[in-house]
């Protein structure tokens, strides 16, 4: 097995690889910040919220529920439901983190988000083909820290200028995140057989979203995908 490149080079590679993702992420960070600012949140409050709960979708849900009086229990519940996907994402990374000491694994998981998770799995696949150690913590942190700093900074900027704008969703920036996830999906694509759990998860999540109020489509889609992967795992492995 080949030796991994130096940590500094790996960190820089992670920063470089995530730059295209940042282009799609910036509009969403600004939109979230603007919405928070219009709800009365200061730039500091918005940056603290996004810094402590680095999870994208649940932050939008929290800002959408923000009001007076503040529905704290409802916000906590919805945040937990939406962030439940991180349990599955963390489980998928566990085989590659098992040799890391806890003091390194826990910070790595704190900074994990959808984009860094997907990019790391794609990088693991590339490193396997090159005969390198599968998981590169410097690369992962290069991706994760860059996304974290940019997200927190621009949500704060959005909150600072938010009261000056109208309905920013009407500007059409909402397509930015779906476009980013389609690119990430392409990097993980291994054929339709391996994608069946994803497709089932998508179908179930869409059906629940259209028929049930609230954020139940998130755990429903995650559970459907997990069950599909469990029951079809052997068949997918045989065809891979």
Keywords:
240 residues; mainly alpha; 2 domains; 11 helices
Describe this structure in words.
- It holds the Pfam family AzlC.
- Its main location: membrane.
- One of its GO terms (biological process) is L-valine transmembrane transport.
- It is found in: Cell membrane.
- One of its GO terms (cellular component) is plasma membrane.
- The protein has 240 residues and is mainly alpha-helical.
- It has two domains: 7-189, no CATH class; 190-240, no CATH class.
- 76% of the residues lie in helices and 0% in strands.
- It contains eleven helices and no strands.
- Which residues sit in consecutive blocks of at least 5 with pLDDT less than 50? 236-240
Mean pLDDT score? 81
State the helix count. 11
Largest sheet: none
Net shape: globular
The percentage helix is over 70%
Structural classification? mainly alpha
Q: What order do the helices and strands follow?
A: HHHHHHHHHHH
Rg, Å, rounded: 19 Å
Task: Give the DSSP E fraction (strand runs of 2 or more residues).
Answer: under 5%
Count of all domains: 2
DSSP E strands, number: 0
Give the distance, in angstroms, between the N- and C-terminal Cα atoms: 23 Å
Summarize this structure briefly:
The chain has 240 residues and is an all-alpha fold. 76% of the residues lie in helices and 0% in strands. The chain has eleven helices and no strands.
Layout of strands and helices, then pairs:
Layout: H1 7-38, H2 43-52, H3 57-65, H4 72-83, H5 85-97, H6 102-110, H7 114-130, H8 137-161, H9 176-188, H10 192-211, H11 217-239
Helix pairs in contact: 1-8, 1-9, 2-8, 3-4, 7-8, 7-9, 10-11
InterPro entries: Brnchd-chn_aa_trnsp_permease (IPR011606)
Transmembrane segments: 60-82, 137-162, 168-185, 192-210
Family: Belongs to the AzlC family.
């Amino acid at each position: 097995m080949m030796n991994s490149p130096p940590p500094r080079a790996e960190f820089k590679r992670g920063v470089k690889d995530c730059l295209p993702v940042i282009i799609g992420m910036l509009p969403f960070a600004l939109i979230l910040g603007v919405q928070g600012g219009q709800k009365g949140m200061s730039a500091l409050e918005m940056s603290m919220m996004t810094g402590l709960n680095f999870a994208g979708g649940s932050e939008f849900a929290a800002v959408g529920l923000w009001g007076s009086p503040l529905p704290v229990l409802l916000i906590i519940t919805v945040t937990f439901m939406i962030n439940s996907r991180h349990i599955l994402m963390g489980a998928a990374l566990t085989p590659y983190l098992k040799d890391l000491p806890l003091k390194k694994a826990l910070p790595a998981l704190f900074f994990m988000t959808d984009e860094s998770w997907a990019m790391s799995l794609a990088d693991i696949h590339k490193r396997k083909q090159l005969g390198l150690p599968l998981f590169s913590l410097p690369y992962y942190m290069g991706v994760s820290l860059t996304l974290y700093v940019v997200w927190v900074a621009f949500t704060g900027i959005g909150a600072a200028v938010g009261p000056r704008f109208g309905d920013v969703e009407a500007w059409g920036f909402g397509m930015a995140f779906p476009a980013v996830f389609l690119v990430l999906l392409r990097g993980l694509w291994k054929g339709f057989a391996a994608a069946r759990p994803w497709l089932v998860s998508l179908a179930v999540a869409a059906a629940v979203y259209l028929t049930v109020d609230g954020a139940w489509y998130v755990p429903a889609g995650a559970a459907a995908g997990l069950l599909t992967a469990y029951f079809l795992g052997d068949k997918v492995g045989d065809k891979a």
